[in-house]
Write a structure and sequence with these properties.
Largest sheet: 4 strands, mixed
Number of strands: 4
Distance between the termini: 25 Å
Structural class: alpha/beta
Helix content: 55-70%
Order of helices and strands: HHEHEHEHEHHHHHHHHHH
Strand order of the largest sheet: 2-1-3-4
Shape: elongated
Radius of gyration: 28 Å
Oligomer: single chain
């Protein structure tokens, strides 16, 4: 490899990047927009859930329980006179649950310590329905403990759970989403930018000029790879700084290990983009193929939003060829748990194999010929 020729090709690619602002926008502006959208606009936490409340007979105990709901950040109680009107509100999408305090609520609460409440959930979104159910159960248990304390008696519960939450004690979905989003961003930067590199040369007619030069194909690919690698690592560092200082996601692992794993993943993403770029001679086709084969699998099959273990067995096997799967696991471990060799090393090996495969495929398929 002649490093003078490589240096010249790298300089040429830098000029191309400067003349084409879309590359800089994809590398730096797009991560900024995605992080702001997911950090502030997307949440898997249910807050201020509209709940219809129906009280058959108002007493001091029902008022006490409703006060518990109203002071909770999870609920936004809406009062309805009867059950049919509350059901109509749920059918129209105005509320997501109906809490019915029956007429014997106070009587049973004073006599046996058990007060019946009837909860109806909108099950269209099953995950949200389970979250609301858990929130109602939590508010119910809290209210029972308060009433037992006021009456000077212990609360009798058959099973007492001593619960601790590791890695994300506040159960904040932002701390889970932001690290995974960095992998999605780097997939988009690496694959989409490099997918357009060789295709752009074909469309502009400059590939013929490169072919008549004495540069080797490895020099061409290396000269095109390095500038986008630097841009991708810059976008990754910007995303990490925003995650830690803007969204306050804890970084419990080593920064050096995080940068090292990110560099390996970016090389893999660049290899995927180069492989697409070598095979497609149209920028439009290359961009569409890159989105379908890299971005969408990374978004759906990487464990970023959906747990891989809950997927069908065949899909779980398929996720092993999705590079983002390994990087998402390493990112979430580095940010929330720390440097765990039992998680990082296996995923690092899987990522290294994919990196060799995609970069090797790019070198093998790239030819200095017009056919």
């Amino acid at each position: 490899m002649n490093w003078m020729r490589v240096k010249g090709l790298m300089r040429k690619e830098v000029y191309e990047i400067v003349r084409d602002p879309s590359s800089i926008a994809i590398a730096f502006f797009l991560p900024l927009v995605l992080l702001l959208i997911f950090g502030y606009g997307v949440s898997l936490d249910a807050r201020s859930v509209p709940v219809a409340v129906v009280v058959d007979h108002s007493t001091s105990l029902t008022a006490s329980f409703l006060a518990e709901l109203e002071h909770s950040p999870w609920f936004h109680p809406l009062h309805y006179p009867d059950q049919p009107s509350a059901e109509q509100a749920m059918m129209r999408g105005r509320v997501l649950a109906i809490l019915w305090l029956r007429s014997d609520f106070t009587h049973l609460a004073l006599s046996s310590g058990e007060a019946p409440i009837h909860l109806t959930l909108n099950g269209v979104d099953a995950n949200q329905a389970r979250i609301i159910q858990n929130y109602v159960n939590g508010s119910w248990q809290t209210w029972l403990q308060q009433q037992a304390a006021l009456q000077g008696r212990p609360l009798t519960i058959p099973v007492v759970i001593d619960m601790r939450v590791w890695f994300n004690p506040a159960l904040t979905s932002r701390d889970y989403l932001i690290p995974g989003l960095i992998a999605i961003i780097m997939t988009l930067i690496g694959a989409l930018l490099t997918a357009l590199v060789v295709a752009r040369e074909w469309e502009r007619g400059t590939m013929e000029g490169i072919m008549v030069t004495p540069v080797a194909k490895t020099e061409v690919l290396f000269g095109k790879l390095v500038p986008y690698f630097i841009m991708g690592m810059g976008g990754m560092m910007m995303s990490t700084v925003m995650a830690v200082f803007l969204f306050h996601v804890p970084l419990r692992g080593s920064l050096a290990i995080l940068v090292g794993t990110a560099a390996l993943f970016l090389l893999t993403a660049l290899g995927m983009g180069l492989a697409i770029s070598v095979l497609a001679r149209s920028q439009f086709v290359a961009a569409m193929v890159a989105i379908v084969t890299t971005f969408l699998p990374a978004f759906i099959l990487s464990g970023f939003l959906f747990d891989i273990r809950s997927m069908p067995r065949a899909i779980q096997v398929l996720t092993h060829i999705v590079a983002a799967r390994y990087f998402v696991a390493m990112l979430q471990t580095s940010f929330l748990a720390g440097d765990l060799p039992s998680v990082i090393l296996p995923n690092l090996c899987g990522l290294a194999i994919l990196c060799i495969v995609f970069l090797g495929l790019s070198v093998l398929r790239f030819r200095k010929r017009l056919d």
